[in-house]
Design goal:
Layout: H1 3-18, H2 33-39, E1 46-49, H3 53-59, H4 62-66, E2 70-73, H5 81-96, E3 108-111, H6 120-136, H7 140-166, H8 168-182, H9 188-200
Parallel strand pairs: 1-2, 2-3
């Protein structure tokens, strides 16, 4: 199912767009399923990393790299400035080993320091460059269309699952089948098939 986070995020984005905001930023915390959820809703997916190329490369999941559109190494200031540049170099090398997310559209790499307000304009320029490349390749509208279709499918699937489990008759059927599964009278796959068959009758 979608889960509350994905549903609320998508609805909040639509609300902001309806209010006239042409740029909507969606922030996630940590690395987990939420990153993949958000990546399926946005035009450009940015990953923020800290200086320290070796440690960073080991800590980031390959799957996150595969959905990244722009990678920014933050805290590129003071003694960490050179480390940030090294990290960017390492990330660029790592991305060369991956299949491109979009044919002919390059991942953007930037360094920044939020503390000193340095590199912020360059980060935004990277986002703009990436989105403009999607437009030039006529991929942006296709991306948004696919996102809308996938959202429709997921909402429809959720509605079907809710109907399957939450109608009174199906609740009774599921409880009976669960008891049969526990008693080893029927396999889970056979029970699922039976429930669907009875639902369609």
């Amino acid at each position: 199912t979608l889960g509350g986070v994905a549903r609320r995020t998508r609805e909040s984005m639509l609300l902001c767009e309806a209010a006239g905001y042409d740029v909507v930023l969606v922030e996630t915390v940590g690395v987990g399923q939420s990153e993949y959820e958000v990546a399926s809703m946005v035009d450009c997916f940015m990953v923020l990393m800290l200086p320290g190329a070796g440690d960073s490369l080991q800590g980031i999941k390959r799957g996150i790299l595969e959905i990244t559109d722009i990678l920014v190494v933050n805290k590129a200031d003071g003694s960490q400035k050179q480390m940030a540049k090294l990290a960017i170099s390492e990330y660029k090398h790592a991305f060369q080993l991956l299949s491109p997310k979009y044919e002919g559209v390059e991942v953007q790499f930037r360094t920044a320091s939020a503390l000193r307000n340095e590199g912020i304009e360059e980060v935004w320029e990277g986002v703009s460059t990436f989105v403009e490349a999607l437009k030039q390749k006529q991929m942006l509208q296709d991306l948004r269309d696919k996102q809308d279709v996938n959202w429709f499918k997921r909402l429809a699937e959720e509605a079907v699952v809710n109907a399957l489990w939450n109608t009174p008759g199906n609740k009774l059927r599921s409880r009976a089948l669960i008891q049969k599964i526990i008693r080893k009278e029927i396999s889970p796959s056979a029970a699922a098939a039976q429930m669907i068959e009875e639902k369609n009758q």
